[in-house]
Design brief:
Layout (H helix, E strand, L loop, with lengths): L19 H4 L2 E6 L3 H10 L5 E4 L8 H4 L4 E2 L8 H11 L6 H20 L6 E4 L2 E4 L1 E2 L9 E2 L5 H14 L4 E4 L2 E10 L5 E11 L4 E12 L20 H9 L3 E2 L4 E8 L11 H5 L3 E3 L19 H15 L4 E4 L5 H7 L1 H9 L9 E10 L2 E3 L11 E3 L4 E2 L11 H23 L21 H18 L6 H24 L4 H22 L25 E2 L8 H4 L3
Parallel strand pairs: 1-2, 1-11, 2-8, 11-18, 17-19
Antiparallel strand pairs: 3-7, 4-5, 6-7, 9-10, 10-11, 12-17, 12-20, 13-16, 14-15, 15-16
Helix pairs in contact: 2-6, 2-12, 4-5, 5-12, 7-15, 10-11, 13-14, 13-15, 14-15
Bound molecules: flavin-adenine dinucleotide (FAD) and succinic acid.
The site of succinic acid (SIN) has 9 residues, from α8.
Length: about 575
């Protein structure tokens, strides 16, 4: 039972029902304004009212940072079978083939929709024809990555933002942090439906209740759980933590993908150096200039990401290096500047010229392959609650995501989530229970910020050191002990103090850390992104399996009603 002093005891839910039409704020609630959330919102606006919550400014999302592009079968030389095979290979035997086939097949249509909505992907002249330029990245056997130079995500966000603005049915609430889902429970305590969310309005520091007929979780990833990450600050795994608290199964959290190449510079905040550079021929070198990837994989620099990240980690540990080097300077300088204008300029700011020589790189946490379990229509285990994009686990990525498959998945699944929500509403209007208003009870103003900042730092550092690219049973056990201790401290602080976004995120972050460790401990094998020195091989004694964690089913009803 989670309820403690500090926040008022909620009334039981389910008894005091009122007619839905009088009680809902929106037909569709979308938590998250990245690619998955915005595609859903734009489509939903055609048939109902839509509220989109974003915890920071509306253009701040992982999507906005995507560089390489979106993978989709586009050229006549390519085929769905090839994209499927590449995805399965990267996923190290753990992808759900049905998920892979269906998402890959829907790729071109989803990309066409992005184009219709105004996204301008880079074009080139090919044999007198004006075509979309297709990039290549690690693990792809064909050129199939549509991109907007090296600022693909920014361009997608621009186009979707403009399309949303043109639709009066969409209301975007920026700087609103979703805290907890509104879950209706049966008399047995089991979740029966999701009816929206409690959200903190950062401008007024008040928590409002937003009731909706359907809710989409599109909150993105959780890179902030690691000390070094390519992700922006919004990526604290809030969606996974909220869904977990509500009772939705979460899976495969051990598969956190580390991107092999981020700029190594104290001020660069793990600035990503796109895999597309290696796709165009960039070579990884040791400080003396020796290339080393051939020793690790026949595809060298274009091996799947887990292989490249582990190879870099291994060379850094073997030689006691702070970084390795990425070299694209053998290509024509004008081409480099034109193909990678953003990366070129950002590197110059830190004193590195891509056209003149190698630049220092290190791996950093990048992408959450696991997440909230959904079916192929983005439905979660709780009716009226959908999840799409990085927050969700559809079975596409398996043990390791293929480069540029995440924008693909988010676009396809955002569309499908809408189709499923529309279908749900077409046959079931539903009646929302009367959820209580948020009641802070006796909670007091947080007076010791250091407790929050220190715990943030501690979680992120211990995840980096103990639950990083290479793991061991002993490190995982040690990590779990510390995380459980921190969790208790954080929870007690949470219940006694008025919430703000740092505290909300910290509480979510510790949950995500726990889930990553628990999943990693359940997996007694090395597979894809989960490399454990105590179990260095695939476990061939059983079929490949997902690691699924679920909060105790016998959850108290207040978990959704209160400020849980
Ligand atoms: P996001 O785009 O992350 O959006 C999440 C949204 O949720 C944000 O609006 C945020 O404010 C909101 N949110 C989160 N928590 C809350 C809360 N509690 N309350 C309210 N709102 C909340 N993938 C590719 O396929 N190709 C690439 O080239 C590529 N490059 C990348 C480069 C970088 C540097 C990074 C970081 C990622 C890259 N990825 C790439 C991954 C890809 O960008 C993301 O997986 C994808 O954009 C996720 O989209 P999304 O819609 O799921 O979430
Ligand atoms: C990159 O540009 O290297 C990122 C691509 C991705 O994460 O899919």
């Amino acid at each position: 039972m989670e309820l403690r002093r500090g926040h008022g005891r909620p009334r039981p839910i389910g008894a005091d029902k009122m007619k839905l039409r009088n009680s809902t704020d929106s037909d569709f609630l979308v938590i998250g304004g990245g690619i998955a959330g915005m595609i859903f919102a734009i489509k939903a606006a055609a048939i109902g009212s839509v509220t989109v919550l974003t915890k920071a400014a509306s253009d701040e999302a992982n999507t906005a940072y995507a560089q390489g592009g979106i993978a989709s079968v586009w050229s006549v030389d390519d085929s769905f079978e090839s994209h499927v095979e590449d995805t399965l290979k990267a996923g190290a035997g753990l992808c759900d083939r049905t998920a892979v086939e269906s998402i890959v097949r829907d790729g071109p249509e989803a990309v066409r929709e992005l184009i219709t909505l105004g996204t301008q992907f880079t074009r080139v002249e090919e044999g007198g024809e004006d075509e979309y330029d297709l990039g290549r990245e690690g693990g792809h056997s064909h050129r199939r990555v549509l991109h907007a130079q090296d600022l693909t995500g920014r361009e997608i966000m621009r186009a979707l933002g403009a399309a949303a603005e043109a639709r009066p049915n969409i209301r975007v609430l920026e700087n609103h942090v979703a805290v907890n889902l509104l879950i209706e429970r049966g008399t047995d305590g089991r979740p029966r439906a999701c009816w929206g969310v409690y959200a903190l309005d950062k401008a007024t520091m008040s928590v409002r209740k937003i009731v909706a007929r359907t809710t989409l979780l599109a909150t993105g990833g959780a890179g902030k759980v690691y000390l070094y990450t390519t992700n922006p600050d919004i990526a604290s795994g809030d969606g996974v933590a909220m869904a977990y608290r509500a009772g939705v199964p979460i899976a495969n959290m051990e598969f956190y993908q580390f991107h092999p190449t981020c700029l190594y510079h104290p001020m660069a905040k793990s600035f990503l150096i796109s895999e597309a550079l290696r796709g165009e021929g960039a070579i990884l070198r040791l400080p003396d200039g020796t290339p080393f990837m051939k020793r690790y994989h026949p595809d060298a620099e274009l091996a799947p990401r887990d292989v490249v990240a582990r190879a870099i980690d291994s060379e850094m540990k073997r030689l006691g290096l702070d970084c390795v080097f990425l070299d694209i300077s053998h290509l024509d300088a004008a081409y480099i500047r034109e193909r990678f204008p953003n990366i070129y300029k950002r590197c110059l700011v830190y004193g590195f010229d891509l056209t003149a020589g190698p630049i220092p790189v290190v791996p950093a946490a990048h992408y959450m392959c696991g997440g909230v379990v959904t079916d192929l229509m983005a439905r979660t285990a709780i009716p009226r609650l959908y999840a799409a994009g990085e927050v969700a686990m559809t079975g596409l990525h398996g043990a390791n995501r293929l480069a540029s498959n995440s924008l693909l998945e988010a676009a396809v699944m955002g569309r499908r989530a809408f189709a499923a929500a529309r279908e749900q509403l077409s046959h079931d209007e539903g009646i929302a229970p009367a959820f209580p208003e948020w009641d802070p009870g006796n909670a007091i103003q947080s007076e010791q910020r250091v407790l929050i900042t220190h715990s943030w730092e501690e979680i992120r550092r211990l995840m980096w050191n103990y639950v990083g690219i290479v793991r061991s049973d002993r490190r995982l056990e040690r990590a779990l002990r510390r995380i459980l201790m921190l969790k208790e401290e954080i929870h007690s602080y949470y219940w006694d103090h008025l919430i703000d976004s740092d505290l909300i995120e910290l509480r979510n972050l510790v949950t995500v850390a726990e889930l990553v460790v628990r999943c990693a401990m359940m997996r007694k094998e090395s597979r894809g992104l989960n490399y454990n020195i105590d179990h260095p091989e695939h476990d061939d004694t059983r079929a490949p399996h997902d690691t699924i964690v679920s909060r105790d089913d016998a959850m108290p009803a207040e978990a959704s009603a209160r400020p849980a």
